[in-house]
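Section 5.1 Outputs to date
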Amino acid sequence: MKFDAEKEANNIIEFIRKYYKENNLGGAILGISGGKDSGVVAALFTKALGKENVIGVTMPCHSKEESKIDAKLVSDYYGFNLINFDITNVFDTFKDELKNLGDFTLQQTNNSDINLKPRLRMSTLYYLAALYSNLMGKTYLVAGTSNKCELFVGYFTKGGDSVHDISPIADFTVDEVIEIGKYLKVPNKVLFKEPNDDLSNQTDEDKLGVKYKDIAKYMENPDEVEIEKRKKIEYLHKMNQHKFTIPTYRR
C-alpha cells in the first residue's frame, strides 16, 4: 500500500492538538540539528500549535557551522523562534574536571564523550522548557525527534535523545519521515541531507554498519534482507534492548 504522507501528517497534527488540549499544555521546545527528523517534527508542531508556540534550539558543541545554518533554514521557513545555546564550554569544563580522576586516552573516553553531548543537550532543553513555561505562563513540552528505524536498532543515547515528553515520528521509518517532510515542504537541503549525529564525524549509517532502508525492510519482512545485513540488524536490536526498559525488582 502506498504511503499517504498527507493523511499521516494530518493525523500527527491532530494527535498533537488533542494531547495538548486534553492536558492544558501550551508550547513545544525541541533541538534543531539541521537534519530531517528535527525539521519534520518542527514543521508538525508549527502546524499543530502555531509558530508562536514553538521554540527551536541549536546546541553546538564542537560542531560544524553547517548544522546551525541548516537549522535556521527550517526556522526561517516556518517562522518559529530559534535560540542558539552553545554548550561547548560546559562540555569542556566537564572534560577538565575529568582530569582529576586520571589521565585517560581519547580512545578510552571516546564513547563517553559522544554520549555526554546528547545528555547535555537534553538537560538544556528541559531547563529551557521550564524557563519558558514560567516566562510565558503556559507549559512547554520537550518534543522527541527519533524515528522508527533508529529506535528499532537502539540508535539513541540513554538519558539523552531518548528523553522527551511527546514523540510524533517514532512510528515512521526514515523514508516515511521524508515523505511527510516533502508534504510539509521542509527545505530540501535539510530533508535530503545525509544523516549524521554531529557528534562523531561519521554518518549514522557508517556508525550502524547498515542502511536505514535495510532496517525498514527488515521490520516489514526480515527474509527480504541479505543474511549478513539481517544478522547485523538483529544484533543491534538485541544488544540495545536494555535501553528500553529499566529492570525493577518487585518484592
